[in-house]
Amino acid sequence: MKFNISKLILLCFLFTLTLPAFSQVSTRSRKVAPEKVAVTFTDHLWYGAGFGLSFNSGYGNLAGSTFSVGLSPMVGYKLNNIFSVGPRFEIQYTNGRYQAYTNTPVVKFNGIDFGAGVFARAKFVRILFAHVELSYINRVYPIDFNANFDKIVTERFGDNQFLVGLGYTSGTIASSEISLLYDLNASSQSTSLPLVYRLGFTYKF
C-alpha cells in the first residue's frame, strides 16, 4: 500500500476546520454554574422609625395645655430569618402654656426628652413579632411656678426601662407597625401605667 501524502494533508486540513465547531458545541452543552452573589453587612440591615403626637390639658397641678411631638429611629441587624438586634433612639419635644391664676401672666414651657437603648426582636410569623428592649430615657418635667408666677420650675429625671411585648406589622417591604409593651422596671409607687404603645414604620424588616 502506497502512502499518499496529499490525502494526509487534506485530512489534517479538514480536521483543523472542524475542531472549533466541536469545541463550541461542547461548551454549549456544559451547564454554567450561576455566580454566587456576595452578601454584605448592609444586606442584613432593616430600618424603622416611630412617631408620637399628643395634646394634653395641663400637667400635674399646672393648669394649661401641652403639645408633644416625638421621633424614634431604629436600625435592626438580621441574625437570621427570625431574630434581629439593634439600637433605638428617641427624642421628644414638648411645648406647654400655663397660668397660675387669671390675673397672672401666661408662662411658656419648652422641654426636650431624649433616650437610647438596644432591642431584640423575633419575627415568628410574617405579621407578628416579639420585642424586648433595654433603654434609658431622660425627661424634663414642669414642677411649679416660681414666686412671681412668671416662670416654670423644671426638674429632670432619668428612667431605666425593661420593655417586653408583642407587635403587629403589615408584612411588606415597607410596613407600618404597632406594638404594645410592658415596662418590667416600672416603679410600683408610680401612678402611671407601665404600658408603652408605639406606632411606626419599617423598611426591609
In short:
The chain is mainly beta.
In percent terms, what proportion of residues is strand? over 45%
Total of DSSP H or I helical runs spanning 4+ residues: 1
Strand and helix order? HEEEEEEEE
Cα end-to-end separation: 82 Å
Q: What average pLDDT do the residues reach?
A: 85
Sequence-ordered SSE layout with sheet pairings:
Blueprint: H1 5-29, E1 45-56, E2 64-78, E3 83-98, E4 107-125, E5 128-145, E6 152-169, E7 174-183, E8 195-203
Antiparallel strand pairs: 1-2, 1-8, 2-3, 3-4, 4-5, 5-6, 6-7, 7-8
Could you describe the 3D structure shown?
- With 205 residues, the protein is mainly beta.
- Helix content is 12%, strand content 57%.
- The protein contains one helix and eight strands.
- The chain has one helix at 5-29; strands spanning 45-56, 64-78, 83-98, 107-125, 128-145, 152-169, 174-183, 195-203.
- Strands 1-2-3-4-5-6-7-8 form an eight-stranded antiparallel β-barrel.
- A hairpin with a 4-residue loop joins strand 2 (64-78) and strand 3 (83-98).
- The longest helix has 25 residues, at 5-29.
- The protein is elongated, with a radius of gyration of 34 Å.
